[in-house]
Amino acid sequence: MRCIESARRPRNGSTGRCTSLVSHGHGARSGWRAGDGRRTHSLKPVGAAQARYHGKEIGRLSELHHSVRGRVFAVDSRTLYLHDFTYDGEGPAAYFYVGTSKTPSATGATRVRDERGMDSPLRRYQGEGLTVSLPEGKTLKDVSWFAVWCDEYSINFGSVMIPRSLEYPKPARLSPLRGVHGVWSEPLVVVDAQTLLVPNFSYDGEAPDAKFWVGRGDNPSPAGIRIPDENGKESPLRKYSNKTIVLTLPGELTVFDIGHFAVWCEAFTVNFGHVVLSRSALTNVPPSLKMLGVSPQVGIQIYSIDTYF
Questions:
Q1: What does the alpha-carbon distance between residue 262 and residue 174 come to, in Å, rounded to a whole number?
Q2: Which of 89-93, 99-103, 297-301 has the lowest mean pLDDT?
Q3: Which positions ≥6 away from 234 have C-beta within 8 Å?
Q4: Phi and psi at residue 30, in whole multiples of 5°?
Q5: Does residue 297 carry a pLDDT above 80?
Q6: Residue 105 CB-density burial (10 A; 0-12 exposed, 13-18 middle, 19+ buried)
Q7: Are residues 95 and 104 in contact, defined by beta-carbon separation less than 8 angstroms?
């Protein structure tokens, strides 16, 4: 059906027409700021539990020497997050290590650089959160333990075993976008709890007020909110032609708080195409760097979709 100005008055004064995939009617202006027709970011995160999500917990470090303690989480196939990590810094040559032996030892061990990417002896840590990455070519499936290890005396200051059955977090593949106004993509990927990858996205750019949109439930509605485009802007979407884009959810919002992602005409409240974010698909996605309290990367490299699986 057509949504023409004479039949449906736009919410923000836009003119033009939208071809509707699903018509939702006008409804109440829930979440709109009086006077300027702009939507506030009124969708709030659900519960505190997800805000504390650090990935898949592996276990606690054994507390053997030099006040080492903390909890260890798998963030993805190569990344560990140390939560509330403590070490007094007084060991002569302590480093992070992973290894393949049945218990921590120098045999089959590989040094892991610290959170700054440095290969120097560990400094003092006081209840800190940090991420470390396994050496290139290794994943958590290749190692059986992680430890704070003293090279000089070959002593384990504290360690945790990594079970062979560990299912580390990984991106989730969803359905593709299909809709009107040329909306099309390959299957969406939830890269982490706050990042969406939309591969080969297309949209004809002819609607007056199309936005990237998220909300609760399976179907888009005016109760949702816009999310910034790949450049961080919230202006109406331009034309896209098979462009792979990365989108970041605003503020503290995560994929656990929403039920769908859509291309939505805000002026005419029309759905141009959407994808449902099923709970079952999101049970083991990686946490975002922001959720871990880690400074975000300057940019995200775009890989082939097959790289994630």
A1: 13
A2: 297-301
A3: 211, 226, 227, 228
A4: -65, 130
A5: no
A6: middle
A7: no
In the block, tokens 């359905």 appear at 175
pTM: 0.81
pLDDT at res. 22: 42
Looking at this protein, which amino acid is placed at residue 63? E
Distance, first Cα to last Cα, the chain:
39
Count of beta carbons in the 10 Å neighbourhood of residue 174: 21
Token pair listed for 116: 């700054």
Question: Residue type at 266?
Answer: E
**Count, residues in the chain:** 309
Mean pLDDT of all residues in 240-253: 96
- Do 275 and 263 meet the contact criterion of CB atoms below 8 Å apart? no
Cα separation, 53 vs 257, whole angstroms: 13
Residue 147 pairs in a beta bridge with 97, 159
Query: Which one is predicted more confidently, 223 or 299?
Result: 223
How far lies 140's CA from each of 4, 109, 134, 144, in Å? 56, 13, 8, 8
Phi, psi of 262 (to 5 degrees): -145, 165
Tokens, residue 112: 């892991």
pLDDT (0 to 100) of residue 27: 32
Report whether pLDDT(10) > 90: no
CA–CA separation, 150 and 154 (whole Å): 5
Q: Where do we find the tokens 């090279």?
A: 151
CA 245 – CA 108 distance, rounded (Å): 41
The DSSP code sequence of 38-89 is PBP--PPP--STGGG--SEEEEEPP--STT-EEEEEE-SSSEEEEEEEEE-S
